[in-house]
Amino acid sequence: MNIKDLFLEFFEKKGHKIIPSAPVVPENDPSVLFNTAGMQPLVPYLMGQKHPYGTRLCDSQKCIRTNDLDEVGDVTHHTFFEMLGNWSLGDYFKEESITWSFEFLTKVLNIPVERLAVTVFEGDDSVPRDEVSANVWRSLGISNNRIAYLGADDNFWIAGESGPCGGDTEIFYFRSEDEIPEVFDPEDDRWVEIWNNVFMEFYKDENGNVSELPHKNVDTGMGLERIAAVLEGVNDNYMSSVWKDIIEKIEQVTNLPYEGNEESMRIIADHLRTAVFISADPASIKPSNTDQGYILRRLIRRAIRHAKKLNIDINSDWDKEIALMIIDKYSKYYSEVVDNKDVVLEVLQTEKNKFNRTLEKGLKEFEKVTTGYAFDVLDKDIAFKLYDTYGFPIELTIELARELNLDVDVKGFNEKFKEHQEKSRAGASQKFKGGLAGNGEIETKYHTATHLLNAALKVVVNKDVHQKGSNITSERMRFDFACDHKLTDEEKVKVEELVNKWINEGLDVTFEEMSKEDAIKSGAECMFIDRYPDIVTVYSIGDVSKELCGGPHVKNTKELGHFKIKKEEASSAGVRRIKAILE
């Protein structure tokens, strides 16, 4: 049995309900491009909303992080990863959480206790030192020498500036053949963090005042890729069972060994796996120049660049072969990769064709700027433009310049590249900063309005119109729906009038819990049926809308104000997009 199955089975025996992984693209959280942690889809429940499965939950969540995308290629970084997690929503707390983590690691995974060490929160002016966690660890056999007290930067969690918060305890494994030091030093890289248990026991308000929460939550996370590498005794994650077959397929496709070609093979393996999951996601993301589509395009193009470095015939089916292996590997757990296999392969093929044309344009640009070039060193701005606009890796620019007896200002390029990276990371951190804050009053109104818009489109356009995705901010709502034509002005007016009619009627918004099967039988609309547990929440707005949904919603449509469509446009083939506001 693999680690994922062992984890879920263990916590199921401890009274946890296994919940399905949410999609990689958040359904109604504009603060992030992708789900970056297991807790993200559970935010409403961590904030107090009742979960239909109860107070003990566990899952394996698909996650994507791109803030350090350019570091992929080393032994540890991945863009897509699976996060194993278990949660207590006002149920058990520190003692059970720590004890079960220890039991799973030492009794199920058979990790020797002497290879483990932990950190706990040292406390500050607002929150006391976490001796409760430390004492639990001592009772389990972790010596004082293996318990480190660290500050808020390392062992305190809060989403944004205010909200639920608390100390955490991190579990480390000694990942080396060296003699295990008696005293744990968190700065020693041989100690690798494998599990994090966050204890949300306080609330910090906007003024910095901290109070104790009446209902305390536990949120834990353990990266599957990292723990697999640890258990299998490999220092290169890509040599673990999670990756080995994919790397072997790349060796077969390139007819080259992994040794000596590690960076390019890791990037191809990682980026194609992530591209498969983004393309297969129910949100129907396609390569583009914005948001998730930009990340998808960048991943595919970077994989292609490294395939070229390994002398792969780009016009062959190399990407398809690798993608099909990835789809087969994950089909047991994530049905969307099978259901949307054709979509994934089409996305890869289309983007590959476009990128080949872009490369040709880049070569023409290179020829243009270097014809009659009067200097010995190619300018950093030219090198960066070739990278940023035409996707040229610096290695390709150096190679082309060498043929003309030109050097390249690599140092200047790296400075511009670093500046570009820092801007991207700042943007990513701003996106992530939203976290728990993305469910305010105005977002709640927009969320409810998407239900009314969905219902109105069914009446005005076609009863078979279905939601394909949505994105909500405090300024506007964006709603994607399946439709084979551009809406006429008359259709847009009718949709707008119908939504406003329902708002003015003051319809009550109610909800009830029932089995998924009963919900479907009752006629409830559902966007992503596979992502919902067996017991679901069904929201009804009068008798005009009935949908499976996790909330949040207003209590009555009169709270919404006036609905106005600002724009209607194509999103992708067979999918239209409406941008609207509430005035």
Q: Which features would summarize this protein structure in a list?
A:
583 residues, alpha+beta, four-stranded antiparallel beta sheet, 18 strands
Explain this structure:
The protein has 583 residues and is of the alpha+beta class. The protein has helices spanning 3-13, 43-46, 94-108, 131-139, 152-155, 224-231, 244-254, 262-280, 291-309, 318-330, 336-339, 341-370, 380-388, 394-403, 410-433, 441-460, 489-504, 516-521; strands spanning 17-18, 56-64, 80-89, 116-121, 147-150, 156-158, 163-174, 191-204, 210-223, 377-378, 407-408, 467-472, 477-482, 509-515, 535-541, 545-548, 563-572, 575-582. Strands 1, 2, 3, 4, 5, 6, 7, 8 and 9 form a 9-stranded mixed β-sheet that branches. The termini are far apart. 41% of the residues are buried. The model is unreliable at 428-437 (pLDDT under 50).
